[in-house]
Amino acid sequence: MFGQRPFVIGAAWPGMFINPSKGSRPLIEGWDGSETMIDKTVASLEEAVAGIFDGATVMIGGFGTAGQPAELIDALIAQGAKDLTIVNNNAGNGDIGLAALLNARRVKKIICSFPRQADSHVFDALYRAGEIELELVPQGNLAARIQAAGAGLGAIFTPTGYGTLLAEGKETREIDGKHYVLEYPIKADFALIKALKGDRWGNLIYRKAARNFGPIMATAAAVTIAQVSEIVPLGALDPEVIVTPGIFVQRVVAIGNAVAQAA
Amino acid sequence: MNKLTRDQMAERVARDIPEGSYVNLGIGLPTKVANYLPKEREIFLHSENGLLGMGEAPEPGEEDPELINAGKEPVTLLEGGSFFHHGDSFAMMRGGHLDICVLGAFQVSASGDLANWHTGAPGAIPAVGGAMDLAVGAKQVFVMMDLLTKTGESKLVEACSYPLTGVGCVDRIYTDVAVIDVTPDGLVVRELVEGNSFDELQRIVPVPLKMASLAAAA
Question: InterPro entries of this UniProt entry (chain A) (predicted)?
Answer without folding.
Answer: 3-oxoacid_CoA-transf_A, CoA_trans_fam_I, CoA_transf_BS, NagB/RpiA_transferase-like
